[in-house]
Each structure stands twice: as structure tokens, then as C-alpha cells.
Design brief:
alpha/beta, 20 helices
């Protein structure tokens, strides 16, 4: 038997405690099963063995008495070799940041509830705990050594004065969720959306029940590992090289949200041209793709959203008529095959300057940081009004510093600039014919169908799912005012429980079918 109760460990902080009977149940084994089947936030902080459950007069478990009166038999959460003092100190920092202790010495930070921004918190606290400086323990350390044991070994070497061998070149890949079955199955690769981080996928990763490993693909630009002036195709080649280093042969499964759509689409093209099978390309609302000029349908697809709804209906109909044209007379997209947006150094500097001095852009980034993390990063009207254009970035940095002082200000600037770089590439990208299985997730509403009309002439095997959003919280509605009303659903979608749950269910079914 089992029962779970919510208890307040300290004012304003709630935690799950599970009780199991009889007390002889193998609790470490229970933890193992729960970690494999539940997202981290649903795994109880404590599991307690009891001799029997107290019952109410009607024969139901009396949870109130269980939580406060029942004698308990505490059983250690983890078993195995005795942990070193350094591992215990690293784990202490993890517990403080993650707000739970449900992990072992070999657990990956990113599959037990860690995120891109909380990783900064861990590294910042570890430096303070062990007296290390940023040159010794960089912001990327947790990506290179994502488990307490590996990180402790690295720290021990630093403290002993034995400069360890240079850490491996950081890969764009990070494991978001490990595989949890005995046989190997191809992983799922999720491509970072604008900003270069993976925060937009956090709810989706937790909602997926697939036993496949889920791997995030981050942009090396964030840590100075990619030169943006080398162009779009070089960018894609770096991603493909990293993906194939982890999985040399297909089938490949790729998920891309928003402006990651162009990147995911081109990754799939590269793999197909190399003779590899791409079993699934899942595009989640790739809004504003291929809109580089008025000659592109993508331009009118986006513009119609900002006109009367009848214009969107006409545009959608025009898109469907494009699909009715015989293939021999259709634009094959072959001219797009060599698409390679390559900004000169001066162009990049201008783009970066525009990104960091745009009030609308800075405020949008602040809102997305909050939507992804739940932390109050959104800049207010008063904060924006008080800043001069050349100080908008400083306003964002100041807000971040107040909320999460451990986050590197340079990383915030990199996110702001990368966002503009990725969106620009997504807009300019030229769609071309693609023969692999593609699934398009389109938020339901008055503009549903525009994306399907845009992709159908190019994708021979396309399945489209319209997905509804749920009711938004008051705070989400307030944050969303940073975005145009006509495209708010786009920004809300991957942060909406109803939308994410529906996408996860459909993705799980597709992944289980292979």
C-alpha cells in the first residue's frame, strides 16, 4: 500500500512525502522505479516505511494522522559505495538549488530538474563552497561534468593542485532525460529555440513518457564556441557533426520549436542527403519561417495575421491552391538548397548593436526568460522608460542580477544577440522539398492552417495536428502583453500545460510506433 501527502517543510515551501507499507518494502527500489517513470518534481522528497496505515471511520487512509502520528522507519534514499566528502558537498549544493535530494552520485543534473539558468546557480555556489574562481570552474562545468561524482573528481584535482587534463571540447549536446529501458533505442534530439537555450522544452521533456533518451542541442555561440560570421550552413554542420558523434547512424528523431524550425528542417535535409533515415521531424509552430521577401508565401502567411481575419482565410486558401498545382510546375525549392546566410563581421556587429538597444526585443527576451523559468525576469514599463536606448541591456542585466545574481551577465548578452541571429536565419531560410516523415503542431485559433498551407507543397509526407491551449494564468496574461496579440499563442504554447500535454501524447504515440 502507499499514500502521498504534501507537507510544508518551511513557510511557503511544500514537499511530497510518500508512505509505504509494510516497512520492509525496498525503498531504494521504489525510488529507482519512480525516477524512471515520473518527472523530477513528482518524485517524493522522502519515502517512509510504516507498519500499517491508520484508517478513518469509513475505512479510508487517514492522511492527517499518517503525516503527524504514525511511527516511521526511515530508510536511506540511495545505496552503493560510500560517498566522498567532496561528493557530499557537491550534492549539498545541488539540493539547495533543486529544492530536493532525489538524485544519486551518477545522476545528470538536467534529468533531475536542472535547467540552463539553475546550472549557473550551482556553479556559482560551488565556487563559493570550494574557494574556486571562474577560470577554474567555468560556467560550462556542469555541462561537461553533469553528475556529482564526475564534478567532485574534477574539483578534487583542482584542490590538490593537479591541473587536470584539459576538459573535452564542450559539445552542443546535453542529456535532458536518460533512456529508461534495457535495449538501445535511437534518442530524440530537441533543437534550441531562439536564445540558444533549451528552456522552452522543459515542460515537454517532463510530460513525455517515451523510454528514449532525450538530448538537447544548444548553440555553442552562448559560450563563445561558434563564430556567427561563418554562416548558416556551418552552424548546421556543427549540429549535425555533434548529433552523428553521439549517434552515427539513423534512424534520427528531431524536434524543433519556433525559430528552431529552420534549423531542424535543415539538419534533417543534411542527414537525408548523407543517406540517413530521419524517422521523424516534428516542427512545433515554426512561425514566420521562410519570409525573406514578398515573393515568399511565408511573408504573406505572417502578414495576414496582422490584418482582418478574412485576409488570413484568403491567404490560407491561396496556400492550399499552391498544393493543387502539379508537382512538375511547382517551385521545388531546389534553388534554396545552397541557402547560406553569412553575415560579414560588420553586419554581425550591427545586428548585435540593434538587438541590445531595441526596447521591444529586450523586453521580449525578459518575458521569455520568465515564461521558461517562472522567475520574475520580465521588465516593467517603468524600468524600460527609465533606461536610455543604449542602456536597455543594462536594465535587463540589473533585473536578472536582482533575481538570480549568480547568472553571468555576459551570458544574458549572448542570449539577447543569439535570439536575433536565430530569428533572422529562420526568416530568411528557404524551404525546399523534403521526403521524410514530418509532423507539424499548430496552435488552434483563427490562424490555424496557414503553416500547413505553407509546408504542403514541399513536404510529401506531412501530418498536421491542431493543438488547443488552455486558460492562461493572470501572470502569464500579463507577461504576454510584451508580444503582439496576434501571435501571443505562439509564445504561450510551449509554456501551456494543456498544449504541452497534447503534444507529448502525440509525440509519445509516434515514438512508440517505431
Amino acid at each position: 500500500q502507499c499514500a502521498v501527502v504534501v507537507n510544508e517543510t518551511e513557510p511557503g515551501t511544500a514537499a511530497l512525502t510518500a508512505f509505504v507499507a509494510p516497512a520492509t518494502v525496498n525503498i531504494p527500489g521504489v525510488y529507482f522505479v519512480l525516477r524512471e517513470r515520473l518527472p523530477a518534481y513528482m518524485v517524493p522528497s522522502t519515502i517512509v516505511g510504516v507498519d500499517a496505515f491508520p484508517l478513518t471511520a469509513s475505512g479510508k487512509i487517514d492522511r492527517q494522522r499518517l503525516a503527524h502520528e504514525q511511527p516511521r522507519h526511515a530508510v536511506p534514499v540511495s545505496t552503493g559505495a560510500r560517498q566522498s566528502p567532496t561528493v557530499r558537498r557537491v550534492s549539498m549544493v545541488w539540493r539547495a538549488v533543486l529544492k530536493h535530494g532525489d538524485f544519486g552520485a551518477d545522476s545528470s543534473f538536467f534529468e533531475v530538474g536542472g535547467s540552463s539558468l539553475t546550472a549557473f546557480s550551482v556553479v556559482y555556489r560551488l565556487r563559493d563552497e570550494f574557494g574556486l574562481d571562474p577560470a577554474q570552474l567555468s560556467d560550462q562545468s556542469l555541462y561537461i561534468y553533469p553528475a556529482p561524482a564526475a564534478l567532485a573528481t574534477y574539483i578534487d584535482a583542482l584542490l590538490a593542485g593537479n591541473a587536470p587534463a584539459a576538459p573535452p571540447t564542450q559539445s552542443p549536446l546535453v542529456t535532458l532525460k536518460r533512456a529508461n529501458d534495457d535495449g538501445w533505442r535511437a534518442p530524440v534530439f530537441m533543437v534550441s529555440s531562439a536564445g540558444g537555450t533549451l528552456g522552452a522544452y522543459e515542460k515537454l521533456v517532463k510530460a513525455l513518457t517515451t523510454t528514449r533518451e532525450i538530448v538537447g542541442v544548444r548553440d555553442p555561440f552562448l559560450w563563445g564556441g561558434r563564430d556567427p560570421t561563418l554562416g548558416f550552413q556551418r552552424w548546421i554542420s556543427e549540429y549535425v557533426r555533434a548529433i552523428r558523434a553521439q549517434q552515427p547512424q539513423g534512424p534520427y528523431y528531431i524536434v524543433a520549436y519556433s525559430s528552431a524550425g529552420a534549423i531542424g528542417y535543415e539538419i534533417a535535409q543534411h542527414l537525408r542527403r548523407a543517406g540517413q533515415e530521419v524517422a521523424l521531424l516534428a516542427l512545433i509552430d515554426p512561425l514566420a519561417i521562410d519570409r525573406g521577401s514578398k515573393q515568399r508565401f511565408g511573408y504573406w502567411s505572417l502578414e495576414s495575421r496582422f490584418n482582418r481575419r478574412i485576409v488570413a482565410r484568403i491567404t490560407r486558401l491561396a496556400g492550399w491552391l499552391r498544393s493543387a498545382v502539379p508537382a512538375a510546375f511547382r517551385d521545388s525549392g531546389r534553388s534554396a538548397r545552397d541557402f547560406n546566410l553569412v553575415p560579414a563581421h560588420a553586419d554581425f556587429l550591427r545586428l548585435a548593436a540593434t538587438a541590445t538597444s531595441s526596447a521591444a526585443h529586450i523586453r521580449s527576451v525578459s518575458a521569455l526568460l520568465e515564461l521558461n523559468t517562472g522567475l520574475p525576469f520580465t521588465l516593467t514599463d517603468a524600468e524600460m522608460a527609465a533606461a536610455a536606448p543604449d542602456r536597455y541591456l543594462d536594465a535587463l542585466r540589473s533585473r536578472v542580477k536582482r533575481v538570480a545574481p549568480e547568472i553571468d551577465p555576459q551570458m544574458i548578452e549572448n542570449i539577447v544577440v543569439q535570439y536575433q541571429l536565430q530569428v533572422r536565419s529562420h526568416h530568411a531560410y528557404r524551404l525546399q522539398r523534403y521526403d521524410g516523415k514530418t509532423v507539424l503542431f499548430d496552435p488552434r485559433g483563427p490562424y490555424q492552417g496557414l503553416l500547413a498551407a505553407q509546408f504542403r507543397p514541399y513536404v510529401s509526407n506531412l501530418r498536421v495536428h491542431g493543438v488547443a491551449l488552455g486558460e492562461q494564468s493572470d501572470r502569464t496574461k500579463e507577461i504576454s502583453r510584451c508580444f503582439s496579440e496576434r501571435i501571443r499563442a505562439h509564445y504561450q504554447s510551449m509554456r501551456d500545460d494543456n498544449f504541452v500535454r497534447s503534444v507529448a501524447e502525440k509525440l509519445d504515440a509516434l515514438l512508440d510506433a517505431h
